[in-house]
Design goal:
Helix content: 40-55%
Number of strands: 2
Cofactor: Zn(2+)
Strand order of the largest sheet: 1-2
Keywords: Metal-binding, Zinc
Shape: elongated
Structural class: mainly alpha
Bound molecules: zinc ion
Family: Belongs to the DNA gyrase inhibitor YacG family.
CATH architecture: 2-Layer Sandwich
Largest sheet: 2 strands, antiparallel
Order of helices and strands: EEHHH
Subunit structure: Interacts with GyrB.
Protein name: DNA gyrase inhibitor YacG
CATH class: Alpha Beta
Number of domains: 1
Length: 73
């Protein structure tokens, strides 16, 4: 009877039927591996987050080295 409450979904990455439960933190994916594969595919299509982050880090460290009062005078 309790099994009727479990919703099965198809993993978007590998199409494996997986249970949509609180015990599955990676739902609707069957595993964290499939989750990472899907996120990786999405990220490489739309964004290059690691690159942008490192560029912004460099800009930020440059700003921190410059005293804003001195640059205005
Ligand atoms: Zn999967």
């Amino acid at each position: 009877m309790l099994n009727n409450d479990i919703t099965l979904v198809s993993c978007p990455t590998c199409q494996t039927k997986t249970a949509w439960t609180k015990e599955n933190p990676d739902r609707p994916f069957c595993s964290s591996r499939c989750k990472l594969i899907d996120l990786g595919a999405w990220a490489s299509e739309s964004y290059s987050i690691p690159q942008q982050t490192s560029e912004e880090d460099e800009i930020f460290s440059d700003d921190l080295n410059v005293d804003p009062n001195k640059s205005f005078l």
